[in-house]
Amino acid sequence: MGMRFTVLSSGSTGNATVVDNGEIKLLIDVGFSAKKMELLMKERELEASSIDAILVTHEHSDHIKGLGALARKYDLPIYANEKTWEELDRQIGVIAEGNKRVMETGGIEEFGTLRAESFGISHDAAEPVGYCFYEGEQKLSVVTDLGYMSEKVKEKITDSDSLVLETNHDVDMLRVGHYPWSIKRRILGDKGHLSNEAAGEALCDVLTHKTKSVYMAHLSRDHNLMDLARLTVNNIVQERAPEAKQLRLMDTYFDRSTKWDVLDSE
Question: Where in the numbering of this chain does the Metallo-beta-lactamase domain appear (predicted)?
Fold first, then answer.
C-alpha cells in the first residue's frame, strides 16, 4: 500500500493527523477529547485501538487535549522530547512509565518499515518539533505552529511527496481583528504562527518535481479563510515556482477529517 495519511482535524481549536503504512498507524497530536478523537477516526474507518503510537509536536492544549485520556484508555506509547515531557507531566495526568518514550529533537524512530524523524521549529513552547515520515522512497512532512520557516526546517522538508503545512492567518485580517495587541504580536512574531504569505514563500524553496500535494493546516477561525489561504499560496507559488503547476493545494477542516491521501498513487 505504501504510506497514506489523513488530517483528522486541524485548526486553532485542535489538531491531529494519522500516518499509516498498512502495518503501523501513528497518531500525531491529540488535540481533542478522547471521545472526539474516536469519532474523527471512525470517519476514516479507523479504531483508536489500532493506533500503535502517538507522536507529540508540543504541549499546547490544541495538540494534547485528549492525549492522556486516549493513551490511558488504549495503553498507547507516547513519544516526545524531554522538555516537552516536563510540560506533559504537569498537564495530562499519570502515564504508565513504559509508555513514556523519549524521542529527542532530531532523532529517528523506526516503526517497522515506517520511519519518523523529528526536527526543531520556532514556536513559543518548551521544545516544539515537526516530523518527517518515510516509507521507502515516500516522504511526508508535517509542520505547523512555527513563527517562521528557518533554513534548517526547509532543508528537512524539501523533496516531500506531500506536506501538511501551517497557513494560520491572513496578516491584514489579524491586524484588524479583535485580539489584544499582545496576542497579535505573539502570533506575528518569530515564535508565533505562519501566515498564508509566509507559507507560500517558504513553499517555493522546498517544492520539487516530487511534491504532489500540500495540505493547508492550522487555520485561524477568526483571522483566515480557506479560500483566501488557497488563493494567496497559489498566487505566490505560480509566480515564483511555475514548475510546480501540478501541485494540489488541499483543504483541512476544523470539524472533520480529510480523505486518505495515498502517496504512491498517481
Answer: 13-218
Buried b (16+ CB within 10 A) or exposed e, 227-256: ebbbebbeebbeeebeebeebebbebebee
Tell me how far apart the alpha carbons of residues 219 and 93 are, in angstroms, rounded to a whole number: 29
Backbone angles phi and psi of 202, in degrees to 5: -65, -40
SS (H, E, C) 163-183: EEEECCECHHHHHCCCCCHHH
pTM of the model: 0.96
Cβ–Cβ under 8 Å, residues 54 and 70? yes
What is the grid cell recorded at 222?
477568526
Helices (H), the chain: 34-43, 61-64, 67-74, 82-91, 151-157, 171-175, 181-188, 196-206, 226-240
pLDDT in tens, 215-250: 999 999 999 999 999 999 999 999 998 878 789 999
As given in the structure block, the three cell numbers for residue 198 are 509566509
Do 78 and 64 meet the contact criterion of CB atoms below 8 Å apart? no
